[in-house]
């Protein structure tokens, strides 16, 4: 079965087609929500933000030229909105949130390992990364964005995308080591 | 090649491992990574770490849940509050004609349809007359020499898939040695020449069947 492409839906949205808007929303809202939620770490804020993101899609559909995938375009809008919210949040709040993500483990790393599976420790460490590192890891692994697409969404050169991904993974290894898991890399 | 010479290339390949695991590399880069993984056990070990990260990142994101219906309600409340939008000029001709016809009353529509049908019959008669006259005056033509006349050859009617880019269409035409003879016509159809000389119906049907498999093609039919 052939489904209507995102580009066709957006051209219909540009013409004021509400049904096309519903289809596009149904297709992408969960991923956009998760991307935003991982950045702002607040479900109510993330929900408000996705309404804002899709409202921008409604308003700007006529300007979408289809040079990049629709999902890349929407994630760029989502990122901009999320960063605007984060900028308004006090820095101390962010630091506390980050600390909460990784500091509730047991003092003894061996005991931690005994209680938890490696996978859950890894997920905890992924959640404990900085916003920049979480973002790039999610875009590459979960949102399946290429180097070029990540560069477009984040607004950095392609070489920086690769370097940032490397440092995000390096930081992840360090967090894992603190939790008693030595991956032998880097 | 010593280890020092190998280092920059390994670093470059290693930087690509996350995208290789996610399947978002170009075919060429993916092949480079595959080759390097096959000959470098340490790189392969690191790739296993990347795959582990990939799996857990997906797991983590999938446990984040989904927004409530409130988000959709909010969105449409905001859309409703937006000023009414005029149809975009990018709407295709078919949509515009459709919108125009919808705006007509049934009586007007019936009269218009009758007038249009009459015009088509008159035009068909006129064209048939011209064709008959032309047939009578056609001279000798060799069977071996392909004609450059745009009306000669075997044709199909094709509507390209909406997601097909002009690049996809060009590649499709080149790969199958096709050329566009006319179009776009109503409904976004193109008359496409599949052979420079006429071919038997059965053979044309086979060509249509083959071309139909291509994802660039949305609709195809043999043209008379």
Report on the architecture of this protein.
The complex is a heterodimer of chains A (186) and B (224). By secondary structure, chain A is mainly α. Chain A has two domains: 6-88, Orthogonal Bundle (Rna Polymerase Sigma Factor, Chain: A), CATH 1.10.1740; 91-178, Arc Repressor Mutant, subunit A, CATH 1.10.10.10. In chain A, 75% of the residues lie in helices and 0% in strands. Chain A has ten helices and no strands. Chain A has helices at 6-14, 18-40, 43-60, 70-88, 91-102, 109-115, 118-127, 131-142, 147-154, 158-178. The longest helix of chain A is centred in the N-terminal third of the chain and has 23 residues, at 18-40. Chain B is of the alpha+beta class and 224 residues long. Among the domains of chain B are: 3-62, no CATH class; 154-223, Peptidase S8 propeptide/proteinase inhibitor I9 (Alpha-Beta Plaits, 2-Layer Sandwich), CATH 3.30.70. Chain B contains eight helices and four strands. Chain B has helices spanning 3-22, 27-39, 41-62, 69-81, 93-103, 106-137, 166-175, 201-212, and strands at 154-160, 179-185, 189-195, 217-223. Chain B has a four-stranded antiparallel β-sheet, with helices on one face. In chain B, strand 2 and strand 3 form a beta hairpin. Chain B is flat, with a radius of gyration of 29 Å.
